[in-house]
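User: Teach me something about this protein's shape.
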Amino acid sequence: MYQNMFDTHAHYTDRAFAQDRAQLLAALPEQGVSLVMLAGCSPEDSLECAALADTQDYLYAAAGVHPECVDELKGDWLGEIRRIAQENPKVRAIGEIGLDYHYDGYDAEKQKQVFIAQLLLAQELDLPVILHVRDAIGDAMEILRKYRPRGVMHCYSGSAETAKEILSLGLYIGFTGVLTFKNARKALEVLDILPPERLLLETDCPYMAPVPFRGKRCDSSMIAYTAAKAAECKDIPVQELIDICCENGKRLFGIE
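Assistant: First, the predicted structure itself:
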């Protein structure tokens, strides 16, 4: 069994964990999970993430508005995210934030406004960002070139060429269980050019469970399968890769 696994992107406030959340979180350290970063999707969810992080020493949180949630925003939403980040010591990032043009009916301009506002907030608070970009890489890269945040491109699914520019901006790149899928060619091409010191491991649980659990509820213990695939591609021992990725995550999120 591997040790020292840092799941840098998880959603344990999701209702998929409603029945056994406390028991699952209490058991994860025994399964080799040393740290987990909870990603917020809305002001309300970010507040829940911050509260949940206080229940376990190894849990940390990010506060932010997911691009799919921009239409639900009301009042001083940015002030709420700022307050959550400032008042909760275990909040170590702004996220997950970005652009998502995947589903019909998206408002690109509103998404960009909300994204930029949160990038500026991250700069104000000197926090890294957790980036979510789906089917919007052109617009996202234009914004990232301008604002140049520090942070991670979560669940990256773009080309190796774009990944080179992401790296040139100083960002980390995170991989989920997608690495283990049969159609993971693009992700593996990116991994091939990615220096180990810029790699983060994540689950995006309860989603993206790796093979052999694909289609089932994911949890942080399954990161071992993603790590094994990444280590195979990098031709280094699995535990060594896990240790490198854990140090990367601690460095990015300011965790001692």
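Now, about its shape. The mean pLDDT is 97. The first strand starts at residue 5 and ends at 10. If you'd like, I can walk through any region in more detail.
User: That's plenty for now, thanks!
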